[in-house]
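[job 0412] stage=fold_complex status=start
inputs:
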Amino acid sequence: MCESCLSWYARCVAPYVVHAGCSAGTFTQMRRRMIPRAEGIVVEVGFGSGLNLPYYDAAKVERLVGIDPDGTMLGLAEPKSRALPFPVDCLRASGESLPLADGFADTVVVTYAFCTIPDPEAALGEIRRVLKPTGRLIFIEHGQAEGRRRRLWQERLNRLWGSLAGDCHLNRDPLRLIGGAGFHLVEQERGRFPLQLWQLGSHHAGVATLVARPAS
Ligand SMILES: C[S@@+](CC[C@H](N)C(=O)[O-])C[C@H]1O[C@@H](n2cnc3c(N)ncnc32)[C@H](O)[C@@H]1O
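[job 0412] stage=fold_complex status=done
writing structure:
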């Protein structure tokens, strides 16, 4: 495909493809289990089209800030945000540079976005910064498959998949990224995707807290 067709696809088609894909039942089941655990001031990084919104527990959430650089995705999220009983701010910004004060959030939620964020290590550094010392990161991600053959196919398909699915990477390891950024996994579970989504590899969900940095 030519460069201008690719960029047209990325701007005008990919957001709707990603929204439709991320609405599948296998993702919804995980959202239903993990998202009600968010509490206090919540920041959702890689907010997308707001597919987690129906699962927040209004009795626990004080305020939600959704961050995403893609205006089309935020446009899909905004009408749903207005219907909620707690304040929701949709901010067009990147996870690598969060426009929020240090220690702002009780909970940061990231679902199926460490696969897409261009610099996930930098985004995790920002998440560390905006979380209160007692705060929690709740995540749901996909990543490297368990078997060697599947991982090889993920590598082979990675570029093509990325250009169709909004720059999603098949070959990242979210647990390694989160652990490497100074988080302690206090809960984690690993599942598999249904056969038609085998290329997404392992399905991870969990809760992580900050590991205290040694005083310098
Ligand atoms: C696969 S979608 C997932 C959306 C949503 N979290 C969900 O669970 O449906 C990945 C999202 O990450 C967003 N994204 C891409 N680059 C980003 C960045 N630098 N910072 C934050 N989000 C980013 C995309 O715009 C997209 O909305």
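[job 0412] summary: The first strand starts at residue 40 and ends at 45.
[job 0412] exit 0
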